[in-house]
């Protein structure tokens, strides 16, 4: 398995995190319409409060990131992203294992969008099981 370094992000990383978050939103086909500047401010608020953002790095190259809410038990993995050019190469599993080791936790909560079949299969392969169904009523 690949060995990745995990690094705690700071305010200096906000620009990069906003871009990666935008890519995550696009790739998941999420309905979030925030632009990069708005995502940067939202990320600033996250890490100023209960969240910690982490990058996964291979020889100082950022492979992806995670955003974890440390105020919840079990911890809540709000965002997990592997850069497009590094997918399907084992980095996702390696990054997740690095994160678990860093957090010293075996239990995490996540959400997967209903239409994200690849994401769903990825998380199932790592031992996650369905616990609830989150639903939204769309307005006309």
Description:
- With 140 residues, this protein is α+β, with helices and mostly antiparallel strands.
- The protein has a single domain, classed as Aminopeptidase.
- Helices cover 36% and strands 22% of the residues.
- It has four helices and five strands; from the N terminus they run E-H-H-E-E-E-H-E-H.
- The protein has a five-stranded mixed β-sheet, sandwiched between helices.
- A hairpin with a 5-residue loop joins strand 3 and strand 4.
- Helix 1 packs across helix 2.
- It is globular and about 50 Å long.
- This is N-acetyltransferase domain-containing protein.
- InterPro entries: Acyl_CoA_acyltransferase, GNAT_dom.
- One of its GO terms (molecular function) is acyltransferase activity, transferring groups other than amino-acyl groups.
The number of E-state strands comes to 5
Helix content: 25-40%
Question: Total number of helical segments?
Answer: 4
What is the CATH C level class, in words? Answer: Alpha Beta
> Which CATH architecture?
3-Layer(aba) Sandwich
Average pLDDT number: 92
Major beta sheet summary: 5 strands, mixed
Helix-strand string? EHHEEEHEH
> Unreliable segments (pLDDT under 50, ≥5 consecutive)?
none
CA radius of gyration is: 15 Å
Q: How much β-strand is present in the residues? A: 15-25%
CATH superfamily: Gcn5-related N-acetyltransferase (GNAT)
Strand order of the largest sheet: 1-2-3-4-5
Distance between the termini: 48 Å
What is the CATH topology? Aminopeptidase
Domain N-acetyltransferase: 4-140
GO molecular function: acyltransferase activity, transferring groups other than amino-acyl groups
InterPro entries: Acyl_CoA_acyltransferase, GNAT_dom
Pfam family, one: Acetyltransf_1
């Amino acid at each position: 398995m690949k060995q990745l370094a995990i690094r705690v992000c700071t305010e200096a990383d906000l620009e990069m995190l906003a871009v990666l978050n935008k890519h995550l939103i696009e790739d998941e086909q999420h309905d979030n319409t925030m632009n990069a500047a708005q995502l940067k401010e939202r990320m600033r608020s996250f890490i100023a409060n209960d969240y910690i953002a982490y990058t996964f790095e291979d020889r100082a190259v950022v492979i992806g990131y995670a955003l974890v809410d440390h105020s919840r038990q079990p911890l809540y993995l709000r965002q997990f992203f592997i850069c497009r050019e590094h997918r399907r190469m084992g980095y996702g599993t390696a990054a997740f294992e690095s994160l678990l080791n860093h957090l010293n936790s075996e239990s995490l909560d996540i959400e997967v969008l209903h239409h994200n079949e690849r994401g769903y299969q990825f998380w199932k392969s790592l031992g996650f099981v369905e616990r609830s169904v989150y639903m939204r009523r769309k307005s006309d």
